[in-house]
Amino acid sequence: MTAFTVDLPRIGESRHSPRSAVLLQRFGRALWIAPVLLALAVTTLYPTVFLLALAVSKSTLGKPFRGFVGIKHFATTLQDPVFLSAIGKSIAYALSTSLLQLALGFLIALLFTSLLKAGRFLTSVVLLPLMTPPVMVGVAWKLILAPAGGLLNGTLISYGLISQPISFLGDPILAWLAIAVADLWQWTPFIVILCFAALSTIPDGVHEAALVDGANSWQRFWHITLPLVAAPLSSIYLLKLILSFKLFDLVYILTFGGPGFATTSAGFSIYRRAIEQFDVGRAAAETIVYGLVIGLATLPVVRLHQRFERREI
Amino acid sequence: MRLAGRHLWLGLATAPIVGFFALPILYLVAVSLKTKDDVLDGHFFPTAPTLANWPTAFEAANVVGFILNSVVVSLLAGLLTIVLGLPSAYAVLRLKIGGKWLSDVTLSSYMAPPIVALIPLFFLLKATGLLDTRAGLVLIYGFANVPVAFWLLTPFLRRIPVEIEEAAAMDGAGPLRTLLQIVVPIIAPGIVATFIIVTVLSYNELLFASAFTFSDATRTLPVGISLFQGDRLVNFGQMAAASLAGIAPVYLIALFMQRYLVSGLAHGAVK
Hints:
The complex is a heterodimer.
Chain A: H1 3-7, H2 18-55, H3 72-78, H4 81-114, H5 117-125, H6 127-131, H7 134-145, H8 151-158, H9 172-200, H10 204-212, H11 217-245, H12 249-254, H13 266-276, H14 280-312
Helix pairs in contact in A: 2-14, 3-14, 4-5, 4-9, 4-11, 7-9, 9-11, 10-11, 11-14, 13-14
Chain B: H1 2-32, H2 36-39, H3 53-60, H4 63-93, H5 99-109, H6 115-127, H7 134-144, H8 146-158, H9 162-170, H10 175-186, H11 188-204, H12 207-212, H13 221-228, H14 236-269
């Protein structure tokens, strides 16, 4: 940049000999990023190293590292059909619900954009689900979906659509749908806000020019709006994907992984293995496997995002 | 006329969307006003509205204590996050310290699901005697949200004209003074938005809170609410009342700060 940034390191120059001044400078500069390095060390570096050590040892929550077991935990994990299916479900869930929410959120944002002033007010309104603790989201949806006396069953029965209450959270597929609906309720507004912001960055003149050229609204959307927001949309999808892989709270409240193991997401499975069964060695191996799988699953989206970004420059 | 028709159409399209997003919260309100028999009725509106659930919910569980724990923990953690995140974001962007690798590493660290850090952090808190303490949660949340703050603050910092900081440097202000006296006042709205967002993230967090706290003195609200359903006889009316009491603080913040929040979220993520 400019003289400003070049000048900065010269703090204390007059008071010290050149060499100690350089050292002091270096130290002073490192001090600026020390906080973030500390945070990274505590929340990322240390957990990674510690997990690797746990994964190859016999460990419980009470007594970690009681002996070296090699790759035993990894072998067990990769042969455990319940955990592998939990990973499969987590991936399928994250990819599909994120895509659905992106599409829905983008449509709502388009709608709000055409509402102009009211749209800005509405984006504030849809902020509320985002601010609602996921646990409360779970409680609210649990009340709506309750088999006996829930709002949905009550409504369906009173309109004569069903004769017996349906146990929404007791059926494997319906339980996943219930989690997806609660997830959609919580996160779509967030996507609306981000899409709204992306759409508002499109200069007004672009649309007017196309209008003059006789482009209809579909052509304007397909050839102008969509390409202009492709890069932000891909980054929003990536963000939601990451959030979906973290799925925990809604499972915890709505189904606690059931019925059976039907809605046990990978994260929830690891939590139970570690915190309820105390088998942290195996939980650590599962965590590492899951982490790698997430990395692989998000890689194509990262690549796509990079391609869109490059195209913009 | 045509304009009015267009607005009517858009209004009709908007109504069900707003209705869907309002329904669960409105239903919580309705259930909190229902008697025990009324809850199992399946209708939206209470037939005999009662406020009895509210005091009994607060008696049945330490709801006030849970809310207080959540408020204290999330506010302190939010402060810690800003104190840690702001200087680093400024240093990377303006002082060119740390370079691109630091922002990349910071952002990618946030991509790891929190479950990854759960077990190691459990042992760290145990070793430092911070397990089942509010201080432990403050530190964990404060550190864990630094990437978010870093990410939200950077666009605000980027929009400050470099000339302003150059002028401060000419006048002999060091980088720290420039940051505190020039930069912070300019991006105060961005800092407020970031603070609110990271605070709300901590306020709403369940995974760490449920693994690292196990007494009423430290339990946060999400953990406290999740205990309501542990009982064999779930009292839905009380659960709804307690949930609403817990949501209230966050909604008040959202109500007063909505303008900052929308711009904070929007500028942070779409880059």
